Amino acid sequence: xxxxxxxxxxxxxxxxxxxxxxxxxxxxxxxxxxxxxxxxxxxxxxxxxxxxxxxxxxxxxxxxxxxxxxxxxxxxxxxxxxxxxxxxxxxxxxxxxxxxxxxxxxxxxxxxxxxxxxxxxxxxxxxxxxxxxxxxxxxxxxxxxxxxxxxxxxxxxxxx
Length: 160
Known about the structure:
By secondary structure, this protein is α+β, with helices and mostly antiparallel strands.
């Protein structure tokens, strides 16, 4: 009985050490991933929103995002986003990155952000989910919410 309790105690101690090591790892690595992912959003949102070009969008998209719709469907969505008019500026970006460990896939690094931006037709909010792979950050989700995209809403006339 004493031997069984010693083994269980050792396993419990090992589990505590592993959990502690994970928290130390996250405290060291987490802020760097937050800065990296936010910098990627700040750099790429103006690029994506300036032209809503299919090739540019594909270049910054993850395989999961590209599988979600055909190239024709993506082109149609990007064309619809052009109703927003010229991209103005990023007002604010909030969010952070997450690291998870999954059986079979190993470490998965993602980031979720909400970007408040301005277009020619008015304000919009972009919901963003990024995934980090060997080749860097890529968009897994990119959705734009704006009143200018509502049916029946006429785009604002271009500024003279």
